[in-house]
Amino acid sequence: MVAPLIAAKAYAAAQEIGAAGSAGAAGPTAGPDFGHMVNQAMGDAVSDSRTAEAQITAHMQGKTNLIDVVDAISSAQTSLSTMIAVRNQMIQSYQQIMNMAI
Predict the structure, then answer these.
(1) pTM score > 0.70 for this model?
(2) Which of 24, 33, 55, 97 could disulfide-pair with 72, CB 3.0 to 4.6 Å?
């Protein structure tokens, strides 16, 4: 089953982003900035897709192995799936807030 593996990798990546963002926190109640975490995750997703494209190009030129291409594509796919899940949760949260009674 691939889905649990993808979820575990996404969770580990989120933990790393959170740990990196909280390293310079001012106090125990201050956490990582959500906007910074989202921007960093988006940057990682773009970087992973560019790496995958570079690996595909290198493979077509005969400079790399197929396993490197598959690994890069898998990483890019995981990053994209994570970003889509985050986007969906943000939209769902926004819709719930908009439906709240005042």
Answers:
(1) no
(2) 55
Question: What DSSP string describes 15-78?
Answer: HHHHHHHHTT-SSSS----HHHHHHHHHHHHHHHHHHHHHHHHHHHTT-S-HHHHHHHHHHHHH
Domain span at 54:
1-7+33-102
pLDDT digits (tens, 9 = 90+) for 45-67: 999 999 999 999 999 999 999 99
pLDDT (tens digit per residue) in 78-89: 999 999 998 999
Please provide the size of the chain in residues. Answer: 102
42 and 23 in contact (C-beta within 8 Å)? no
Whether residue 11 is predicted with pLDDT greater than 70 in this model: the reply is no
In a domain, 77, yes or no: yes
Token pair listed for 6? 């993808």
- Rounded CA gap, 75 and 13, in Å? 11
